[in-house]
């Protein structure tokens, strides 16, 4: 959709992105998610939420992620999730290499609802400690605040519900480099 917008469409998007950056504010529609519950294959009673976000908003997030990565540096080399080209195979390969050299201790953690329950004030404080400041910090503060979601299930859609904490599922900025 965005790729096919043509030069006039791209100019309009650039104007919108620049306005968001200058004002350190996101349009409220960019902060809204539609959650589609998908049954888990091994437990049909349990649902996996799939969050649909604004494509235009996610494009702006990609721009901000580039600025954020420049400000704080890339994610740690031992973090495999959320890094392009770094998946399970690379993680296992690194682990096996470390184990073959002897004396390796491994701890596996699965934190339930870690992103949903993350405290936004703590995230922002950690970003400040990493040197994030000015317009970037203010934009990220607005990005994390005033988020809302609705659930769409079997042709029905709920009202929007506000979220106080957490980073938005489906967001490019969800794993903020803190």
TrEMBL record:
The keyword Nucleotidyltransferase applies. Residues 19-178 form the Reverse transcriptase domain. The keyword Glycosyltransferase does not apply. GO terms for molecular function: RNA-directed DNA polymerase activity. It comes from the Eukaryota. Residues 159-178 are annotated as: Disordered. This is RNA-directed DNA polymerase from mobile element jockey. It comes from Chionoecetes opilio (Atlantic snow crab).
